[in-house]
Amino acid sequence: MSTSSFVKAFALALFSVACSSPKMEPVDYVNPYAGNISHLLVPTFPTVQLPNSMLRVYPERSDYTSEYLNGLPVIVTNHRERSAFKLSVTTEEILRSAQNDNDAQNYRAVIPVSYDNEHLTPYSFDVTLADGAVKAKYALSHQSAIYSLEADEPLTIILSSRGGSVSWDGEALSGCQTVEGQTKVYVYMEPEVKPVREESFATDRDSWVTLAFDKPSVRIRYGVSFISEDQAKANLHREIADYDVDALAAEGRKIWNEILGRIAVKGPEKRKKVFYTSYYRTFERPILMSEDGRYWSAFDNSVHEDGGVPFYTDDWIWDTYRAAHPLRTLMDVPVEENILASFLRMADQMGTGWMPTFPEVSGDSRRMNSNHGIPTFADAYSKGLKVDVKAAYEAGRKALREKTLVPWCGNPAGELDRFYWEYGYMPALREGESETDPNVNGWEKRQPVAVSLGTAYDSWALSKLADAAGEKEAAEFYKDWSLNYRKLFNPETLFFHPKDADGQFIPDFDYEFHGGPGMRDSYDENTGWVYRWDVQHNIPDLVALMGGPERFCGELDRMFATPLSHSKNVFYSKMPDHTGNIGQFSMANEPSLHIPYLYNYAGAPWKTQKRVRQMLDTWFRDDLMGIPGDEDGGGLTSFVVFSSLGFYPVTPGEPVYTIGSPVFTESSLTLSNGNVFKIVAKDASDDNKYIQKATLNGVPLEGPWITHNQIMAGGTLVLEMGPLPNKDWGC
């Protein structure tokens, strides 16, 4: 063969291989294992779930490196924390061995088994158990699922309820488990074939049923409910008509591709993997609780008719208000409107009228600090969503004025609240000073700077809602109150500094390390270096407080350049949330998310472009440690979605986004209203991160800002990218 003939043949072979490769769809880029090994705290879990659906599962193990699975999952009832029921699958030989090791009273319902060859997608998983003795395949719908189980000998299954009961009626397994407080979850499970033997066991704490089959292949389908066993059965039969696990997986794949495909991107494969994995994470929360038009609410321990407005819960608002909620105001307005309507229902059902802060399946846990449901409503209203502003204002007002501002507490206002509403800040304790307010949690402490800054922001957002509701006097009051962050600003250090009840700054204070575990005596989970930028609602004033744009940018630079002054083992033993460091900056915790964008407010947008790329490239990757901190149901990964596209909502409550540095050469967003907004970043690459010039719909764009209405109207933002900063653009 001649050289030219060989080259042609080789090229044809390569072309044939390329053409035969399956086309990658959005869901194929999702890696649920990304971040499954944590840097310090809770990792991500490989969640199998349809978008925002009630039924979520992941293999139950402490983390990715665990040697054993504690049975097969049935339903996770609280993101990353609680799981109800377990399905153990084994053979007679393995079962006899397990029983021989335990007498009848101590027999374990959940048998830990080794596992291998686990493959997991957002809509399905398969795994081999007990060194290949059993093969399991799984796929799910919104409130029901199918397991297909295969072995070389007859199978036995065990359904267990930890803290409840399970039973067998000759046709199906059913059960109930209390997961927290008065919240109950129900299951109804049908095997395709009847067992040849059934045994039931119970203790004071647990209940389980063993079903032995004479076949090596068993398929099981089940439904779940928070209302009743009958509703779990109805949910199953409404969603699944057969036992075809592959067909159910195909339907789940279709659903995920449709919702992920609303954002189409062009660029490097590694970027697509991080992007779509991050986007998938934003659909873990909140979950849709409506079942055939009814829903269980832990907020009054009752079942309600939803009246055609679906009910959502399990939303850690302290984390998600920053970017996850704003992402839905672009991409899925009806869902966001229903979530906000759910918040108002919760406020009413609790009997207090207070805006929720951490609504979960088991009720409002009141974790963290502040009342950031208020800016969530203000943001939605400012962007034209349907919001009951009068009800939102009233729920927000009551949350600020009637509920205590003390972190992790749902009690009425007390001593510290009276102080706050008189003096405008939460006082800190001096070293050795005893706590006097019984509302204060012994571990979480007062968090005085975090509470003061967060409440200033909430007051600003409440003033927006008050104005929209026609409460003009209240609007002015809360607008003035939103400036109270100034009371803790130390002009000598340019930090927000804890102040005692006498109005004196706490002396000899270390902004990196003082304040107990997590610096909760002063801040919360992050150091003073992070909280010095926590004025999202009035950044121009913060720039002025710090001495103007040049000094402001210099202090930002200093944060990124200043190393930790303690060894890592010493620092992280006290500050385990403050990981993902670049200097004193922490990428791993939500209060930091807006900080890289602050240079835009001080005339140095090229530095924002550099910093955003630095964060994405350093801390977010397609691997087991590819997420730097707690991923709280989209709280962290929504930053990746926005930042990869090239813009970010620094101030929820203002219908404006600030521009960063897109990683894709082209992105196309199919918005809630059907319009398409495109971002074209010409020549964007790892090096070409700096914007040279920009146009919006052909008109020069001189500043690093774009409004919500401009995006929702559709059109094209064109950014010409280069390897060196253009220090004139956007200033």
Q: Please, could you describe this protein's structure?
A:
- This protein has 731 residues and is α+β, with helices and mostly antiparallel strands.
- The chain contains 20 helices and 35 strands.
- It folds into two domains: 31-260, Beta-galactosidase, Chain A, domain 5; 264-722, alpha-1,2-mannosidases domains (Glycosyl hydrolase family fold), CATH 1.20.1610.
- A hairpin with a 2-residue loop joins strand 22 (359-360) and strand 23.
- The longest helix has 21 residues, at 448-468.
List the helices and strands and how they pair.
Blueprint: H1 3-20, E1 48-49, E2 56-57, E3 68-70, E4 72-78, E5 82-91, H2 92-100, E6 112-121, E7 124-129, E8 134-140, E9 144-151, E10 155-162, E11 164-168, E12 173-180, E13 183-191, E14 197-202, E15 206-212, E16 217-225, H3 229-239, H4 245-260, E17 263-266, H5 269-281, E18 287-288, E19 294-297, E20 302-305, E21 312-313, H6 317-320, H7 324-331, H8 333-349, E22 359-360, E23 363-364, H9 373-382, H10 389-401, H11 415-423, H12 448-468, H13 472-481, E24 489-490, E25 495-496, H14 528-531, H15 539-545, H16 549-561, H17 568-574, E26 581-582, E27 585-586, H18 605-619, H19 637-645, E28 647-648, E29 656-659, E30 666-670, E31 676-682, E32 690-696, E33 699-700, E34 705-707, H20 708-712, E35 715-722
Parallel strand pairs: 31-35
Antiparallel strand pairs: 1-2, 3-6, 4-5, 5-10, 6-7, 7-8, 8-9, 9-16, 10-15, 11-12, 12-13, 13-16, 14-15, 17-30, 18-21, 19-20, 22-23, 24-25, 26-27, 28-29, 29-34, 30-31, 32-33, 32-35
Helix pairs in contact: 5-19, 8-9, 9-10, 9-12, 10-12, 12-13
